[in-house]
Amino acid sequence: MEMPALSMGSRRDEDIALDLMKFIAMTTSYGKTTGSGVGFQGTGAAAKPEDYAAQLLELYGRCLQSVGGK
User: Fold this and answer.
1) What Cα–Cα distance (Å) separates residue 24 from each residue in 21, 61, 65?
2) CA–CA gap between residue 30 and residue 56 (Å, rounded)
């Protein structure tokens, strides 16, 4: 199965959305369990790893929609 040839510098929307999601998650501690903290804490504290993963997947979907202009 051949992959379509990409020109240098071109990136898929999925890759851009993933980088955006990572940036948001790392800079805001999005979805991580938190004690008392200052600033934006995401959508709330995730009690379990499954909850944290679900929040990251939701964030990725939102990033993908934003990048795709949908």
Assistant:
1) 5, 13, 15
2) 8
Is residue 60 within 8 Å of residue 35, measured between CB atoms?
Answer: no
pLDDT in tens, 28-52: 988 775 555 555 555 555 568 899 8
DSSP state of 45: -
Question: Contact, 51 vs 8, CB < 8 A?
Answer: no
Q: Whole-model pTM?
A: 0.64
Q: What is the DSSP letter of 67?
A: H
The two tokens of residue 35 are 């004690």
Amino acid, single-letter form, for residue 16: I
34: tokens are 């938190």
